[in-house]
Amino acid sequence: MKNKRIRRERSNAYTNEFAFVPAVENEALLSFDLISDETKILIYSRDPSDSLFITQLKFNSVHFTQLDRNKSDTDLAGLSNLDSLQFADDFSIFNPLQGLFTVLDFSEVMLFLYQLDDFILNNVELEVGLTTASTDPIAGVNFYALNQESGINGNVFASLDLVLAGNLDYVSTFNQAANDFLLSEESFIAGAGAFSPVISEVSELTYNSMITLALEDQYLRKTFLGEDTFEKLVMIAEDRLTFNQSFIERGSVTVKIYYTKSKGL
Known about the structure:
Structural class: alpha+beta
Order of helices and strands: EEEEHEEHHHHEEHEEE
Shape: globular
Helix content: 10-25%
Low-confidence stretches: 1-14
Strand content: 15-25%
Strand order of the largest sheet: 4-9-6-7
Mean pLDDT: 77
Radius of gyration: 25 Å
Distance between the termini: 114 Å
């Protein structure tokens, strides 16, 4: 009987996919910081001598190209197209935890401005009302432009610290931010200082924001640069991890525009 020699080789398995999946007792996976040194995968292994080895895989140099939202255990289970989701005619739902965001159609507002001639924009207020069902409304919201892929652009806001440190060009980053979201009044007044998005805080079931300079800036960009990014605005919770939700009352969204029409000579 011949002896058979079995050759033992080390093999490595490679995969292009990796997922963080919440346990069944968790309601949701809210967020994780990939830049942090504390975010890592630890692989524990032992050699034939029973010595323990720990391999650390960190994410701060890894780029991700896809993010899927799993709705199987939520009220949205079975819905493949959220655009077709219809609610009652008297409200819309703003619930970040379930991935529901209210979109405001700003096209008529911008069209009104474009049709004006020789005017001075004095003051602009944006009001969004809530129904009485909003017992725990979202405390503060931002307004991001809806892009052509039905999403939002927010990378420039994440780069703000790099701008302030002098590692990114301020002017180009400011211009990109102005096309990504409604900038606060202070952002334009501060000049070369810091810039920030509008934060509309709820008061008596109403979000109220001053957007005079942001709207004027968009009008000028459209008129002189041909940019047209604010046809629709998405309401985004300032606290990205909030469990609260707001019921937006249809017909309550109001843009108050105070302007002075110059008289012809």
